[in-house]
Design a protein that fits this description.
By secondary structure, the chain is α/β, with parallel strands linked by helices. 45% of the residues lie in helices and 9% in strands. The strands form three sheets. A five-stranded parallel sheet has the order 3-4-5-9-8, sandwiched between helices. The protein has a two-stranded parallel sheet with strand order 1-2. Strands 6-7 form a two-stranded antiparallel ribbon. Bound molecules: thiamine diphosphate.
């Protein structure tokens, strides 16, 4: 039976359901029965997501990828949020949601192709209801709102606006508002939208427009902000003096602040907020308070702007080790289980490496052909010039091969 955390909670303290020591606790602000979560499966997801990340960084270092934005440290936020989704829900990611992509069933090689430069987009968003990665900060929040508007228009769904919803409170608890079990897969409600964003995206006009539009229209969208505390080298403190979740009140939507390194809190908050969204209760902003343990991307050097002490402090709050400790301490998983996951991760990594190297080179005509529905005469001319240039390169390399 999880104990109730003894510490008196400040209302802005992140909600925690699994401590860094792996102890399950309760929090009245987010009622959640941990038996409704498959912790061994969540552990497996997090281990494989981290392995995907480690392998991608190694591939980048070997020159196989141009760039890689690491998720290291953010596994609980991503897996917790993603495992709250249903297949029909739609996800709008940034460029760092590799763990979410994994949970949606996207082929991880598609992610590698994007950063290897062998694809112009990566995948068809409709295949697994996971939109394309968005590198323009904050742009995906408006895409998500537009999609949510589409859901409302298509289904003729009653929204909270029609019911005169009171949107004035921060930290309103959607779980309390909706006692129906949000995990129940037979719940016959409509799809919802889950939009990911970073703390830096909150400083973008688009994100603020998205919040306003989603709230006034009471749209079925959840904004999941991974506050990893850094927007490249800009700390959150230069963007705001209050927690991310507290900023929600200014827009009139509920804000929930959870420990982003706690997979259970992330799962519970997202399940609850998605349920609110799909049952006409409107949007929620979730702040998953976490830490990006690697540099921003493989092109960045975090030691130029970050203290080692801060990095060490967050290493002690590792999202994976706390789940492992919990599974060991409660006897929910034995050494054979962990060995099995380790072996699976090894095979997964080997497959990933060979599949990355085997990704087909793109047809050089694609950027020309895909700019417009039909190519203009000017683009045709440019393509012909480009082909002639590539042929001349090949001839030169053939010649130098003959000489050698
Ligand atoms: C509109 C726009 N402005 C600036 C950039 C450059 N840029 C790339 S990543 C980044 C920081 C984003 O930080 P955050 O939203 O916290 O996400 P994180 O990378 O930490 O996950 C910036 C400013 C961009 N890609 N798009």
């Amino acid at each position: 039976m999880p104990r109730t955390s003894a510490k008196t909670k400040d209302r802005h303290d992140p909600i925690q359901l699994l401590t860094p020591q792996g102890e399950a606790v309760t929090d009245a602000r987010l009622p959640f029965d941990p038996s409704g979560a498959d912790l061994p499966a969540l552990y497996r997801d997090m281990v494989l997501a981290r392995r995907l990340d480690t392998e991608a960084i190694a591939l980048q270092r070997q020159g196989e990828l141009g760039l890689w934005p690491s998720l290291f440290g953010q596994e609980a936020a991503q897996i917790g949020a993603a495992r709250a989704l249903r297949p029909a829900d739609m996800v709008f990611p940034t460029y760092r949601e590799h763990g979410v992509a994994w949970c949606r069933g996207l082929d991880p090689a598609s992610l590698l192709g994007l950063f290897r430069g062998t694809t112009l987009g990566g995948w068809d968003p409709r295949d697994v209801n996971f939109n394309l990665y968005t590198l323009v900060i904050g742009a995906q929040t408006l895409h998500a709102v537009g999609y949510a508007m589409g859901i409302v228009r298509d289904t003729g769904r009653i929204t909270g606006t029609d019911r005169g919803r009171d949107t004035g409170s921060d930290f309103a608890d959607p779980a309390v508002e909706h006692p129906v079990d949000p995990a129940d897969p037979t719940d016959p409600t409509d799809p919802a939208v889950l939009a990911f964003l970073g703390d830096g995206a909150l400083s973008e006009g688009e994100t603020n427009e998205a919040f306003i539009w989603a709230t006034t229209q009471s749209l079925p969208v959840v904004f999941f902000c991974q506050n990893n505390q850094w927007a490249i080298s800009a700390p959150y403190s230069v963007q705001s003096t209050v927690p991310v979740a507290q900023r929600a009140a200014g827009f009139g939507l509920p804000g929930i602040r959870v420990d982003g390194n706690d997979v259970l809190a992330c799962l519970a908050a997202t399940r609850s907020a998605l349920h609110t969204a799909r049952t006409g209760g409107g949007p929620t902003l979730i702040e998953a308070f976490t830490y990006r343990r690697n540099a921003h991307t493989t092109a960045d050097d975090a030691s130029r702007y970050r203290e080692t002490a801060e990095e060490k402090e967050w290493a002690a709050k590792d999202p994976i080790s706390r789940v492992r400790d919990h599974l060991v301490n409660t006897g929910a998983a034995d050494p054979a289980y962990f060995a099995g996951i380790e072996a699976e991760a090894q095979t997964f990594a080997e497959g990933l490496r060979s599949r990355c190297r085997a990704l087909p080179e793109p047809d050089p005509a694609l950027p020309f052909e895909h700019t417009y529905a039909e190519m203009t005469p000017e683009l045709r001319r440019q393509l012909a010039e480009h082909r002639a240039y590539l042929t001349s390169l090949r001839e030169m390399s053939d010649l130098s091969g003959e000489r050698a």
